[in-house]
Structures are given as structure tokens and as C-alpha cells.
Design goal:
InterPro entries: CRAL-TRIO_dom, CRAL-TRIO_dom_sf, CRAL/TRIO_N_dom, CRAL/TRIO_N_dom_sf, PI_Transfer_CRAL-TRIO. The protein is an alpha/beta fold and about 300 residues long. It has 11 helices and 8 strands. A hairpin with a 5-residue loop joins strand 2 and strand 3. The protein is globular.
Amino acid sequence: MGFFRSAEPKASADPSLNEKEPVRDPILTVQKDYQPPTAPVLDDSQQQKLTQLREYISTIILPETDDYYPNEKGFLTDATLHRYMRARKWDFEAAKTMLESTIHWRRDFRPDQLDPSYIRPEAETGKMYYSGFDLAGRPLWVMRPRHQNSKDNDRQIKHIVFCLERGIRLMPKGVETIDIIIDFKGALAAHHPSLATSKKFLEILSNHYPERLGYAFIVKSPWFFLTSFKLISPFIDPVTRAKIKFVVEKSGDNADTKRDASELAYLPDYLPEDQIETEFYGNRYFNFDIDIYWTRLLELTGDPYKIIDY
């Protein structure tokens, strides 16, 4: 998640990968044959709670004269209300409190208006970028801790929020969630984040972006990740914890006997094979180029930003 420092990346041990011409264009538009998840049908009680929540929100939304009103109105869609109700298991009071907290946080933080020029220095090395979609059309958010390039905790957090917002703008019709791949190859523990920083990230993700995580795929997890994972696990919702998968190289690979089979993932079961990068046991030799990536990302998600319906 951009929280580690590493040595310079080494050349691949496979000569064929070094000789192959890399591609530099990120995949930022979904494949035509994606199959979005089917939305569950709501019962009468759930419909009533959504109506009640909508009525309450109408009493606290910004006035139309406020410059942030269009942004807030775009955020407070029925889909947003639905996600907050699901996140609180249809407990109306809990969902209302959670959503109201997010409304105030967004007014103060303005996550959808973060300046790309301020964020770009964090993105220069390719420690965090989008490229690809899973079979259900979820954008694929790649994180490479070994490319960590900053000690600015505030801008690191804003970079993460910026990426969350841009990922939402990359979502095709019928898709509400993002997949994450964390590639720990070459990562060191030297600049491991503080527990407070890790908790801050989890707080933002769980409290202000509920029901936005599809899967989190862990590639080549080192000992220090497992140590930190144990420290932050108590702060992770059990539903979120179940979405974390450890990637194996081959289908049916049970070499990791320390983990239950349900925790393991063979990526071609989740992603189109032509979108799986060589670092994740695939054949797509992708070479991150900040100029190409940043231009494409802003073209699709707004430069400096764009207002959308959430």
C-alpha cells in the first residue's frame, strides 16, 4: 500500500521476460464480456428503511447555493444509501450514524477534489496504480510496496483516497467494488508504517468507503506483512477479512499448508488471463510509465476532477 521501502528491483530470473517487449498502456476500460454481480432483491422492510434514510438525508444535505452541493448530491444516491445499510446489516440507526459521519468527513476532506498535481509525486514510481478488471468488471488496483518513495504520511493517505475515488470513476455499469493486488516482491520492512497510519487507512476504507472492496489478493507475502497483519487484524471487519486471498502460482497449489484452502487464490479463476501481469504469474509484461498512466487516468476520471453519481 505504499508503506514499505525496498532495494532496487532485480532483473527477472527468466530471460524470456527480459527479452520480451513490455507494454506501457494500462488497461483502464473494462472488457466487453464482464459479468457484474447480480443485485439482491430487497424486501419490504429494507425498502422502508431506505426510504426512511433518504428522508433523513434530505434534512441535512447542503443547500443548493453551496458550491459543494453538486458533489454531495452526486454522492448521496440510492446506491450509496444501500451500501451503508448493507454495511450496518440493515440497522437503520447505525447506518444513519455512519453515513452522516461520512457526509461531514467529505465536506471537510473533499476526497473527490484532491488536486492531481499534489498527488502525482506519490504516484511517480508506480507503487500504486490501476490496470485491469476482474471477470466481474471490478477495477484492479495494484500496489507495489517496493516502490515506496515518500515519508509524507499525510500525502500518502491522500494518495490512497485519491486512488479510491478514481477507482470508483473507472467502475463500469453494475459494478460497485474494487479488487486490490498487493505485490510484496522485493519489499523490505525498513519503512513499515506505524500502527496509527495503518489504522487510519483502515478507518477511512471501512467507515467512508463501505462495501467497496471486492477481493484483496496478496502476492509473495513476507514475514513482516504477516506480523503486521496480525496487529491490524482486530481492526478489520470479519466480512472484509474473508475477502483477503493469498495468490498461488498454479491451480490447486496447496503448498502453503499454513493457510486454509479458502484463503488461497489462483488468479485466472478471478481475472481474464490476458490481463494478469508477469509479476502475478501471468503473461502480460507491463512496465509502468507515469506519463502515459497519469494522462490516461485523468482523461477517464477527470482533470482535475469530475462530479459523478456514486
